[in-house]
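Entry 14. Ran structure prediction on the chain below.
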Amino acid sequence: MQAALRRANGARGVRLLQDAFNMRSIALYASLGFEVREPVLVMTGRPTSEPTTGITIRPMGEHDLDACDTLGRQVHGISRRRELAETLQSLSPLVAERAGRITVYMTAPKFWIANHGVAETEADMKGLLLGAVAVRSEPLSLLLPPRQTGLLQWCLEQGMRAVKPMTLMSIGEYHAPAGAYMPSVFY
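Output, structure tokens:
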């Protein structure tokens, strides 16, 4: 881990997700100065409700990067434009539009390790999740901080399952998200 921190080469902040049941790793990360930010659950499944009306779900394109980055800055306080551009090359990111404006995105609906997303509201996030299962045949897979109680309860009511507990930790600069969001291991 010390080698990984050296590789971060003076980054303003480093964050990680660790398996919450792994006492050795949480002790290691805490001893290196990482702070616990919040618990996170790996959720999987296919929400059962019909897609939300008034929301259009579509693949994210390069022309969406500015709008998605603006949304990400509102929630995270930092730019993730470069990471979003990378997802266009290797993942299947989706956006949802309401009244012709992007209100939510997610980067990898079926691969929780890479699936980060942000939304203006929990309702927008629910709309994207419902729309994603309508356009993808595989179950959704995402990380969900359980402090988003309404979204967690909705996911459970929709038949999704919590399959693994994790802990979000960071060292250095950290911006607590201000809105509905899903972290990922990559971003």
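The chain has a mean pLDDT of 93. Will compare against last week's run tomorrow.
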